[in-house]
Design brief:
single chain; about 550 residues; mainly alpha; 2 domains; 20 helices; about 0% strand; Transcription factor domain-containing protein; EcdB-like_regulator
Length: about 550
């Protein structure tokens, strides 16, 4: 009896926790709900009822989809097949915090298991990997490759991209030619501020690792007062300077740059902007490598962005692993005197880490961290302003614009859809068959709802061509919304393209229509990516640009 009472008490406690997490996420992510009710019904319920209804409707619609799949199969089919499809669709349990987070548009990066679709007795059982690099190993593609590329694929195997990256030499650590040993002390305040401003108007727009108000009123001053000595503030500012140098080059590429910041050094910086700043940060952080706090996590994420821009995905992954450890340390040891701003900042860093880890682990042969099981306990960020730092009247930093906050949340929702596509449509098991059509249809429908339910400020028509970028956000935010939409359409249709190349006789008219849609998405993506490419030096996903 005591055991039953204890179990009931634990269940009640869990329900209270789930309700708290759901309430925190509801306001931020209500725009990304997958709504299956008619507008009249949806408007008739109260806000509290809407929250419960949303979860219930998700369950019902997925059960309905599963039912359709079951009806499409012969009655004497293997029960294992039905279990496989049900796993691919992953019906939700509203009492589960992890599943509730998915309903609210939070990417579920924890589930990296591959899904085995039912095998048809007459099919050659193809194995299709989600990694876009693996398209090289499709038989139809292999037959069209040059002999040198074929030989490379044979020698390196399916993990060729990871192997080749791991064998590259490390970034140079020697100082640039003609640079004095005390060049940092010669930097003017104007230079520091200008490069910082460039960072916040480029990199931080889509990946808000730093709070702009805190950086300018605390971090930058601490680094300057300490004469860039060995402290975490110096390390952060130096990496920001490095990224600001890259951002300055990106602005020049797009024709959006004003007067460049005066620099006391020349040399290597022309080839890889900011490398000297980055090397100085690495020197200092060697004495701080055991730090686990918020700023250490920020340093790892900022360093990861630099490696990403330098086309070093393996080094980027190493930085993300360390950032993930810092995040896990915080969430497993939350102090009772924590403040809302700290929780919100840690939430930002957690989801940025999770999102980038998903890209790296899904595209390359790299393992994700073990901290992602914390996803079910961590609410979405609300972008709270630090209350203990004075504000100057009605002044607002550009990064405080809700436009960028909603864009960040839209990235998370899009990552959810790609992760679902990866888990439901792609596999590594050579005994697996092509995915069932109802799963493809449901993923396309969810993608369309993602696009349609973006806030008005983020809305776009996929049929309307993009104009040339007139400001950084046009290339780094607006254009990427279009690109994400088209790349998801391509991924969802990729198994059918494989089928068209390998088994053209098995295609129906519906299959051909979907293949045409996937190819059209690729062509539309090609024109959109030209806009993002105007700021090529500010694109952390450049290594994955054709896949993510």
């Amino acid at each position: 009896m005591k055991a039953l009472l204890q179990k009931d008490k634990e269940a009640s406690s869990q329900d209270r926790h789930v309700n708290t997490v759901v309430r925190k996420r509801q306001d931020a992510m209500k725009i990304f709900h997958v709504d299956f009710a008619s507008p009249s019904v949806y408007n008739a319920v109260s806000l509290k009822e809407k929250r419960r209804a949303s979860l219930g409707m998700i369950v019902n619609i997925l059960r309905r989809i599963e039912g359709k799949i079951d009806d499409s199969k012969p009655n004497d089919s293997n029960p294992t097949e039905h279990r496989s499809i049900a796993t691919a669709l992953r019906s939700f349990n509203p009492r589960s915090p992890a599943n509730s987070s998915e309903v609210l548009g939070v990417p579920s990066f924890l589930r990296h298991e591959t899904i085995d679709s039912p095998a048809a007795p007459t099919d050659p059982n193809p194995a299709i990997s989600f990694s876009a690099h693996q398209v090289l190993f499709w038989p139809a593609i292999q037959s069209a490759l040059p002999e040198s590329v074929k030989l490379m694929c044979q020698m390196q195997g399916s993990t060729y991209s990871t192997r080749l990256e791991a064998s590259r030499p490390k970034l140079p650590h020697a100082a640039s030619v003609d640079i004095s040993s005390d060049w940092l002390s010669k930097l003017s305040i104007a230079t520091l501020k200008q490069l910082s401003d460039v960072y916040f108007t480029t990199f931080n727009l889509a990946n808000p690792i730093l709070d702009q108000k805190t950086y300018f009123q605390r971090t930058l001053g601490a680094a300057i007062d300490g004469n860039f000595g060995i402290c975490i503030e110096s390390c952060i500012v130096l990496v920001v300077m490095a990224l600001g140098s890259m951002g300055q080059k990106a602005l020049q590429e797009a024709g959006l740059a004003g007067t460049s910041a005066p620099s006391p050094y020349v040399g290597q910086d022309a080839e890889m902007p900011g490398l000297d700043f980055f090397n100085e940060a690495r020197k200092r952080f060697g004495f701080l490598m055991c730090e686990q706090d918020l700023q250490a996590c920020q340093f790892y994420l900022l360093s990861g962005l630099f490696y990403a821009e330098a086309l070093r995905p393996i080094d980027w992954w190493a930085m993300l692993s360390k950032a993930s450890a810092c995040s896990a340390y915080f969430w497993n040891n939350i102090s009772r005197d924590r403040d809302e701003w700290m929780l919100d900042m840690q939430s930002r860093l957690f989801w940025i880490t999770s999102m980038f880890e998903a890209v790296l682990s899904q595209e390359l042969n790299l393992p994700p961290s073990n901290s992602l099981h914390l996803e079910e306990h961590i609410a979405l960020p609300k972008f709270i302003s630090a209350q203990d730092i004075a504000s100057f009247g009605s002044f607002r930093y550009p990064g405080d614009d809700p436009f960028f906050h909603y864009h960040f949340l839209s990235q998370l929702a899009h990552r959810l859809i790609l992760t679902r596509a990866r888990n439901s449509l792609f596999h590594f098991n050579p005994t697996a068959d092509y995915p069932p059509e109802p799963v493809e249809d449901e993923l396309i429908r969810q993608l369309e709802q993602w696009r349609e339910r973006l806030p008005p400020m983020l809305q776009f028509d996929p049929k309307s061509p993009l104009t040339q970028a007139e400001c950084p956000s046009d290339a780094l935010v607006t254009a990427w919304l279009h690109a994400r939409y088209f790349v998801a359409r391509y991924h969802i249709g990729r198994p059918l393209l494989h089928r068209a190349l390998e088994r053209p006789a098995s295609l129906t008219e519906g299959h051909l229509r979907k293949c045409r849609d996937a190819i059209n998405a690729v062509l539309a993506w090609a024109s959109v990516i030209q806009v993002t490419d105007t700021m090529r030096s500010c694109n952390p996903l450049k290594f994955f640009v054709c896949s993510q």
